[in-house]
Amino acid sequence: MGLLRTVRDWIFTIPTLIAFGGTLAIGDPILRFSRLFGLKAMEWTVAVEQRVLIWTFRLSGMRLSIERSPGLEKGKGYVIVSNHQSIFDIPLLGGTLLSNLPKYVSKVELGKGIPLVSYNLRRGGNCLIDRKDARGAMRAIKAFGATCQERDTAAVIFPEGSRSRDGRLKEFKAAGTAMLMAGADEMPVVPAVIDGSWRLLTNKMFPIPFGTKVRIRFLDPIERHPDEDRSELIERCRSEIAATLDEWQATQA
Questions:
Q1: Which domain range does residue 113 map to?
Q2: What are phi and psi of 217, to 5 degrees?
Q3: What is the mean pLDDT of each run of 10 residues along the chain (253 residues)?
Q4: How does strand 155-157 pair with strand 103-107?
Q5: What is the CATH number of the domain that holds 65?
Q6: Is 0.85 surpassed by the pTM of this model?
């Protein structure tokens, strides 16, 4: 049975990788061309391309379940605080929050070498930080939050700092998240939960396990207050994310 599953996984992985790689290769020059017409044109182009990337993974049998709080409005800016399981989380959130035009806090290394993704991170209004320059990173994150608030676009941060390779929630590194909240001090905060995306990379995509279930839940927006305790707000986000992951994993067990 193990051999048959491996053969099945490869049968569906090959067209998935071809479609995924083709989308990156073709989407990159299209994205660069769209930038000539301004940032807004680029934002909508990358939103559509991220949706296409999600569709390509459906060729591997991926099942995507999305749950949204009724309070999450389309076309509105939020601070999105999410757990992080895979590099695929970026198109997952981007393709799901299409009209909110999400931007990301990401390490500077991702700004090079990845077709479509790297150009978007560099030129699409995102925040690339150098982890070796803590002060510069904090200033950049705060300015990024202020820009997203001014433009009413979503600002996404992954407080764990790096991907969880087994789906377990890691400790939050609160400094960057607190600085983002300080820069975007009027935007509601939305805890987001992703589970299952780590399984897509179990074998580094060679092959992709067939039929992987990926779940995303956007929890209720948390309104902001001038006298809020940001450390408590971050802990609230972490607690709500952890509770959702525990709920899902208990159901799977």
A1: 2-252
A2: -130, 125
A3: 88 96 97 97 96 96 96 96 94 94 95 94 96 94 98 97 91 95 98 96 90 97 96 97 93 72
A4: parallel
A5: 3.40.1130
A6: yes
